[in-house]
Automatic annotation (TrEMBL):
Protein name as it appears in the record: DUF4233 domain-containing protein
Highest taxon of source: Bacteria
Keywords: Membrane, Transmembrane, Transmembrane helix
TM spans (from-to): 7-26, 32-51, 63-90
Coiled-coil residue spans: none
The keyword Transmembrane is assigned to this record: yes
Entry-linked InterPro entries: DUF4233
Chain residue ranges for the region called Disordered: 111-134
Amino acid sequence: MRTLCAVVLVFEAIVIGLMIPIAINLEGMDPALAGGVWGGIAIAALVLSGLQKYTWAHYAGWALQAAFLFSSFLVAGTPLVPIVFVSLWVTGVILGRKVDVQKAAHAAYAEATEGSESSAPGETAGATGGARSA
């Protein structure tokens, strides 16, 4: 799950960074304000993508999704972009959890079959140094 979420955050950081010239050119927003708002969110997305192994960073990713969604209302016509990324984030969480469950089941199965293969029936180590008993 965390890998999918990290990938979404990296691509989201690129798109968030592209919101800066859109806000400046379309809305006439001050470049310092646009850079501060979306530049800060983009940097936070990059940092959080690298920290997704921590639970708190995953929850911070949810907060970043909300921040991107609410900040998009400052520029007309752009709220669709964060809606797409929030959808990708939710899909990544759902599919990632399914993959995590399947990985855990596979690891448990592999561990169970590995343990049964090491003690094959009919083979015992006898007192004479490992001779086979019939």
